[in-house]
């Protein structure tokens, strides 16, 4: 396990993206425990893409315009739904003081779907992992699995930190109804923007 891989993975994980945004929204709305389950769901949502990269299925997704488009547009629709859930009163991601706690399973499942429906993740692993392999074909699958496990561990740790920071700011922010409305609308706009960016992606 090289230091270069750890640094590369850390930079990728810490960069704000859909998973980070979702974890922050859940943590602000429901607290740190809920944020941990959001982080856990986002982390496990990486598994199908890692498996696809190891088995070579990512290359098929990369070259199949139809398959890529199906997964992509499903992801776009899901992000737009998350935007709606942030914007509407009583929505699952709307930040309000009187929010009822959701089940851990529902929170984690929503986070997992965010990553599962992102077709660029499989291609990302196919590009990220090979440069850090030893070059021995017999060990490639085991090495990619180990690197992927480290990447997932970093993902959960960083997302859990984001959740803790958001939860720490929660009580202060919830004291202002205006701030709550602004936060909810901001999350809605960001999810919609991410949906727009995903819609522009090409299999290439």
From TrEMBL:
Chain ranges passing through the membrane: 6-24, 36-60, 66-84, 112-133, 145-170, 182-200
GO MF annotations, alphabetized: homoserine transmembrane transporter activity
Keywords: Cell membrane, Membrane, Transmembrane, Transmembrane helix
Entries under Pfam families matching the protein: LysE (PF01810)
Protein's UniProt keywords contain Acetylation: no
Topological type in the membrane: Multi-pass membrane protein
Subcellular location per the Swiss-Prot or TrEMBL entry: Cell membrane
GO CC annotation terms, alphabetical: plasma membrane
InterPro entries registered for this protein in UniProt: LeuE-type (IPR001123)
PANTHER family reported in the protein's UniProt record: ARGININE EXPORTER PROTEIN ARGO, HOMOSERINE_HOMOSERINE LACTONE EFFLUX PROTEIN
Family statement drawn from the similarity comment of this UniProt entry: Belongs to the Rht family.
Protein's name in the database: Threonine/homoserine/homoserine lactone efflux protein
